[in-house]
């Protein structure tokens, strides 16, 4: 038996880092959005070994890979003795703020439950996911989501739809841990700012440029001027909104229509950037297409 799982990427429509918590993590208020760009995971059973194969040499295929860790944790939780061979077709840029590794981990848990014919209850699945990374659980739900806590606690929001997104990456990596530790000014005390969620619910994409923001931009655009350059170029090419996703290095842009986003894609590629067109993937489509 072979199981194929789509492992979608996410962007953050908004991301507020409120304060540093006693456990060392930062308290977040974020709005996640799953998008059409996705990796593919192809899984088959082995006697006992867990093997990872990936077509992108930058992805480690050892025990440090979140896919490996997810498989081990699921095996421990269920007592399964079988192993798995998991092939990752990598399309989501690595360490790029789009949750690629986290999404792969969530897809692994869902896929291996089918492959090994085991099931764990939702809260156990959530606990394993949250222990693997703060933005793993969002990939069980998909769509437009409010993320709180350290980002692991997610709630569905009214969907924001956009058919003409452009994702651009200057092919540099940003360390999430370093980005957080650079946020000194913000983490001294609780931020009084609040994402106006009513905007997302009532007005959706039309009002997004007014409320979209990312606290990481303030530090990461300074330490990585290549990302600031991507943002400026996207704005010059007519993007209604251009915002860094997560702790970077990807910038996503919202265009009025497909024609302008396609033109911008060509221009950005000519500058040597990785640039892919995408659209939002709502919760219903997300959940029904993972195993397509
Ligand atoms: O949870 P995850 O493993 O993805 O986080 C990677 C690192 O990012 C953490 O070790 C921590 O330093 C930082 N982080 C944080 N606050 C969060 C999420 C992540 O400080 N809410």
What does this molecule look like?
There is one protein chain. This protein is 35% helix and 28% strand. The protein has 12 helices and 11 strands. Strands 1, 2, 3, 4, 5, 6 and 8 form a 7-stranded mixed sheet that branches. Strands 9-10-7-11 form a 4-stranded antiparallel sheet, with helices on one face. Strand 3 (50-54), helix 1 and strand 4 form a beta-alpha-beta unit. Helix 1 (66-78) runs parallel beside helix 2, helix 1 (66-78) packs antiparallel against helix 3 (122-132) and helix 9 crosses helix 10. It is globular. The chain starts with a strand and ends with a helix. The relative contact order is 0.19. The mean pLDDT is 93. The structure holds cytidine-5'-monophosphate. Residues 25-26, 28, 133-134, 150-151, 176-177, 180 line the site of cytidine-5'-monophosphate (C5P).
């Amino acid at each position: 038996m072979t199981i194929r799982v789509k492992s979608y990427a996410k962007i953050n429509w908004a991301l507020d880092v409120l304060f540093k918590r006693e456990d060392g993590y930062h308290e977040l208020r974020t709005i996640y959005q799953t998008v059409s760009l996705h990796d593919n995971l192809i899984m088959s059973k082995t006697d006992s070994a867990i093997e990872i194969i990936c077509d992108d040499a930058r992805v480690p295929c050892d025990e440090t890979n979140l896919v490996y860790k997810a498989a081990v944790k699921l095996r421990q939780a269920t007592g399964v003795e079988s192993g798995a061979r998991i092939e990752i077709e990598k399309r989501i840029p690595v360490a790029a703020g789009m949750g690629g590794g986290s999404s792969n981990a969530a897809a692994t848990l869902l896929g291996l439950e089918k492959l090994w014919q085991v099931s764990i209850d939702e809260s156990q699945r959530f606990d394993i996911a949250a222990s693997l990374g703060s933005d793993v659980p969002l990939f069980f739900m998909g769509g437009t989501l409010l993320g709180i806590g350290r980002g692991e606690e997610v709630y569905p929001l009214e969907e924001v739809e956009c058919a003409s997104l452009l994702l651009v990456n200057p092919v540099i990596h940003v360390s999430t841990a370093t980005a957080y530790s650079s946020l000194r000014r913000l983490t001294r005390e609780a931020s009084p700012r609040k994402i106006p969620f009513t905007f997302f619910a009532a007005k959706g994409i039309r009002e997004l440029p007014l409320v979209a923001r990312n606290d990481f931009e303030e530090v990461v655009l300074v330490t990585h001027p290549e990302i600031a350059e991507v943002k400026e170029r996207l704005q010059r090419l007519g993007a209604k909104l251009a915002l860094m996703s997560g702790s970077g290095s990807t910038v996503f842009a919202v265009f009025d229509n497909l024609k302008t986003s396609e033109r911008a894609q060509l221009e950005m590629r000519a500058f040597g950037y990785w640039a892919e067109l995408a659209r939002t993937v709502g919760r219903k489509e997300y959940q029904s297409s993972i195993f397509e």
